[in-house]
């Protein structure tokens, strides 16, 4: 690293002092020490010469470092939680495969020995190229519809992933959808009884046809969608990928679409409608899934209603959707 520039230290969403987090969680005395370690690791494992480490952002026990090199800006991401290392390796292979099939993802750069996820100094690290752009703007209906179409294409690709069994081994299959919602309702005492009763009735009346399950992203939202103009340039962060019902991922994505790091409020109904329309432009919904969609949007919205104060309005959003559903 040729510039003795101290990287800017930030927390992604936590209200903690980043300098203390850098030391307490990652063992570095200061930003320059962390920057030197990143540069040394990239030189040793990837053969990359770092000119400067510009920024380090932390979230939990994960960190991201933006570095400048002769070939452009790169992003190094590492974790210090050993239990996560197997999942990170599996997801790195998955993302690399998706990139090879033309999906808009941030693919890992192979290390000198071909590894996509490198375990070094008690960490698990991957390296990616920076993808310029802005996070999805839910006020832009063209971007929103494009995001829906990308989710459909992504699901189509993931359904054909040849190593899906590696992901399946990380977590068990989803349970029956009716049982999952019923069990959730049993513990949702902060949700008004009339609303719970209505959801019970809607679930009981829903089609009993088996709904298809497959591998999905399951964290498809503004914080993980980089856009350039009207196009989705990259879907980020596959760490939550798992098997579930395809229609559950569509509903959950429509509900969470506007969430970022500090803003977890719902999007308006018309934004959800644009997103779903974009999805359906690529993959029309079979009748059973179409019948479940609004029910699942209601469930996913209610699941985000906090006990007590509801500063971002999940409760009113759920009630608005419910009134449209039973009208």
> What sequence of helices (H) and strands (E) makes up the elements?
EHHEEEHEEEHHHHEEEEHHHH
Computed Rg: 21 Å
Overall shape: it is globular
Helix percentage:
40-55%
**End-to-end gap:** 63 Å
User: Kindly state the mean pLDDT as a whole number?
Assistant: 95
Unreliable parts: none
Number of strands: 11
Largest sheet: 6 strands, mixed
Number of helices: 11
| Order of the strands making up the biggest sheet | 1-2-3-4-6-5
Instruction: Give me the secondary-structure category.
Output: alpha+beta
Per-chain topology:
Blueprint: E1 8-11, H1 18-26, H2 31-46, E2 50-59, E3 62-69, E4 72-79, H3 85-100, E5 118-120, E6 123-129, E7 134-135, H4 141-159, H5 164-168, H6 177-187, H7 193-205, E8 213-216, E9 225-228, E10 231-235, E11 242-245, H8 246-256, H9 269-282, H10 287-302, H11 314-326
Account of the protein in words:
By secondary structure, this protein is of the alpha+beta class. It is 44% helix and 18% strand. The chain is built from 11 helices and 11 strands. The strands form 3 sheets. The protein has a 6-stranded mixed beta sheet, sandwiched between helices. A hairpin with a 2-residue loop joins strand 9 (225-228) and strand 10. The longest helix is centred in the middle third of the chain and has 19 residues, at 141-159. The protein is globular.
